[in-house]
Amino acid sequence: MELIKTIDQMRSWTESQRQAGKTIGFVPTMGYLHEAHLSLVEKARAQNDTVVMSIFVNPMQFGPQEDFATYPRDLDRDCRLAEGAGVDVIFHPEPGEIYPQYPPLTAVEVKGITECLCGKSRPGHFTGVATVVLKLFNIVQPHRAYFGQKDYQQLLVIRQMVADLNLPVIIEPVPIKREEDGLAMSSRNAYLSPAERQEALALSQALQMCKNMYSNGELRVSLLIEAMKARILQEPSAVIDYIEIRHATTLAPLTEITGPAVVALAVRIGKTRLIDNLLLEGN
């Protein structure tokens, strides 16, 4: 496995692979890898000749009071895990390589699906995400790129950007990877104390409760959300950012589930903000 730190080197590698007729799968990450990241690599490995993973903690998607400085980082560990999973190249640039001028004078803003959910409570977040992903696509030039469905709104934003800007890359979603007890895998889980880790199970349990109620015929969004809130607020350190049920592709608000819907939530357990979601097919 090769570790590349500059844009010029990354583009040179990409050019050599494309000239050889090889397809490139791309897994963008912020590092501190876990099994969910490796499931992205597994799908990329199965569908492409070569796999590139980026490890870049993107300052542009963090707010001023968020955890950019303390976000977990361990490059040596990440390299071992990535190599074991079959990654061919890790692209690990310094912030100044990606942003020679910061903040950049040019940014990507995707409207219509970024004003709600995480976009409402984290203004500017998805502009930072879309901007860095476009930059990475331009540098790596992959044939396919892989994104986990845990960051469901992010997946929709990237898909919209690719469609609107006619980018020659296929976006491949990968299902949420969970711990055995149901907690969605996340690099931020490392922040949780043992007691908080137990409390965090309320997120997946609330989602499962919602799914069960829906399967039993409950379609009213207000009652489904009320039940989820009640479950989560049983935990002493839980603070709800949002619990919402929206149209699965447009993120339009719903009062009743009559078609495909996403149930999305963000909750702080202690100081750690966690997100999770599930999809309902609708009638």
Question: What does this entry look like structurally?
Answer:
By secondary structure, the protein is α/β, with parallel strands linked by helices. The protein folds into 2 domains: 173 residues, Rossmann fold, CATH 3.40.50; 90 residues, Pantoate--beta-alanine Ligase, Chain: A,domain 2. The chain contains 10 helices and 9 strands. A 6-stranded parallel sheet has the order 1-4-3-2-5-6, sandwiched between helices. A 3-stranded antiparallel sheet has the order 7-8-9. Helix 6 packs across helix 7 and helix 9 runs antiparallel to helix 10. The chain is globular, with a radius of gyration of 19 Å.
State the share of residues found in helices, binned by percent: 25-40%
Largest sheet: 6 strands, parallel
CATH fold category name of the largest domain: Rossmann fold
The poorly predicted ranges are none
CATH homologous superfamily caption of the largest domain: HUPs
Strand count: 9
**N-to-C order of helices and strands:** EHEHEHEHHHEHEHHHEEE
* Average predicted confidence as pLDDT: 97
Q: Strand portion, in percent?
A: 15-25%
Shape: globular
Number of helices: 10
List the helices and strands and how they pair.
Layout: E1 2-4, H1 7-19, E2 24-29, H2 35-47, E3 50-55, H3 75-85, E4 89-91, H4 95-98, H5 117-121, H6 125-140, E5 144-148, H7 152-164, E6 170-174, H8 194-199, H9 201-215, H10 221-232, E7 238-247, E8 261-269, E9 272-280
Parallel strand pairs: 1-4, 2-3, 2-5, 3-4, 5-6
Antiparallel strand pairs: 7-8, 8-9
